[in-house]
Specification:
Blueprint lengths: L1 H4 L3 H21 L7 H21 L7
Helix pairs in contact: 2-3
Length: 64
């Protein structure tokens, strides 16, 4: 609520994208899960989208 009230809506929304990405990364590195090529491509596409939105925002989404 605080982020939305203080005009940090984009950063809050990025949190919904960053959290599952970090979960997948932890699964790969900590639990030694293997991703198929399509899953790896989807992960890279999602990371690229977060990077593009972060650059367009002009600031690191510290609330995310």
């Amino acid at each position: 609520m605080w982020a939305v009230v203080h005009d940090h809506v984009l950063e809050t929304a990025l949190g919904y994208f960053v959290s599952p990405l970090l979960t997948v990364v932890l699964g790969v590195f900590v639990l030694h899960e293997h991703l198929r090529k399509v899953q790896t491509f989807a992960l890279m596409l999602a990371v690229a989208a977060v990077v593009v939105l972060t650059v367009a925002n002009g600031a690191v989404p510290w609330l995310a």
